[in-house]
Amino acid sequence: MKAQALTDGSSFGPDALKAITRAFDQAWAEIEGHIADDPLIEDSARQTLASAILSIATDSSRDVQVLKKAGLQVMARNYTSLPIVATNASP
Fold it and tell me: Considering the entire predicted model, what is its pTM?
């Protein structure tokens, strides 16, 4: 999977990597049904989601909900068929 390759070789510690992975998995579970049933589109969407989460992640990232919310916000902007994520919603 190309999205997995984004974290390969990164300098995240094990706790941050667990949080990042959980955030990705939870966010993907929420939007997967809204992505066209086309492997190329799905792969592109997964890469976009992974990049969005990784763009705010740090080695001290531990809050899965913050990471997930950031990823979903990017996806809502990039894929208009997805539900809009409120920017002031509580995690």
Answer: 0.77
Environment class of 37 (CB within 10 Å of its CB; exposed 0-12, middle 13-18, buried 19+):
exposed
- Return the domain boundaries, the chain: 11-78
pLDDT digits (tens, 9 = 90+) for 24-50: 999 999 999 888 888 898 999 999 999
Q: Which long-range contacts (CB under 8 A, 24 or more apart) does 3-11 make?
A: 3/43, 3/46, 3/47, 3/49, 3/50, 6/47, 6/50, 6/51, 6/54, 7/50, 7/54, 10/54, 11/59
